[in-house]
Amino acid sequence: MHMSKKVWVLIIVILVVVLGIWKLPSLFGKTWEGLGLTSPTPSPTPSSNYVPGKKTTPASQTYDQTLAAYADRRIQFNEKCQGIPGQIVLKKGTKIMLDNRSKYVQTINLDGAKVVLPAYSWQIVTITTKNQLPYNFGIDCKSDGGTTENGAMINLQALIGQ
Predict the structure, then answer these.
(1) Residue 48 DSSP code
(2) Who is most buried in 21, 48, 125, 162, counting CB within 10 A?
(3) Is the peptide bond before 46 cis (omega within 30 degrees of 0)?
(4) Which residues pair with 147 in a beta bridge?
């Protein structure tokens, strides 16, 4: 049995459409999760040994509520452990959101102190240092998806009177 040209063209068109839908998110630098098609949730008991500041993960807030509250004080880490934004200026003692948007557990190194973020989780940490201000420190990230040194940079400034 021999298939006609129209049938072959139809099969090829269907394959191209299916492949296009499957690859569409990566064309825009997103994953299916990043498009909001699944609902990421924080780990109920994230672990951390971040020493310079204290961390909290409010159980009473959803991811969207926390995202809105920390929109201008958030560093998001993608699957390649890259921080977005790449640089941020903060005052000493500022609370920020460390946001893991990958399927990997990520270990974030904040100036020598570590924060472990389970897949699709976040933590709120207070950024501080004993070093003289202003002070710049790189944020390193390690996961199965990749490792980056200075994947993001924090420029820590003094509060007036410090």
Answers:
(1) B
(2) 125
(3) no
(4) 142
85: number of CA atoms within 13 Å, CB side? 11
Cα 67 from Cα 22, distance rounded (Å): 27
Q: What are phi and psi of 13, to 5 degrees?
A: -60, -45
Q: Is the dihedral of CA 58, 62, 67, 69 positive or negative?
A: negative
Rg of the chain on CA atoms, in Å? 21
Q: CA distances (Å), 2 to each of 7, 9, 34, 127, in order?
A: 10, 14, 44, 69
Inter-CA distances, 160 with 87, 133, 134, Å: 22, 11, 12
* Confidence band for 22, pLDDT divided at 50, 70 and 90: low
Model confidence pLDDT, tens digit, residues 58-93: 556 888 999 999 999 999 999 888 999 999 999 999
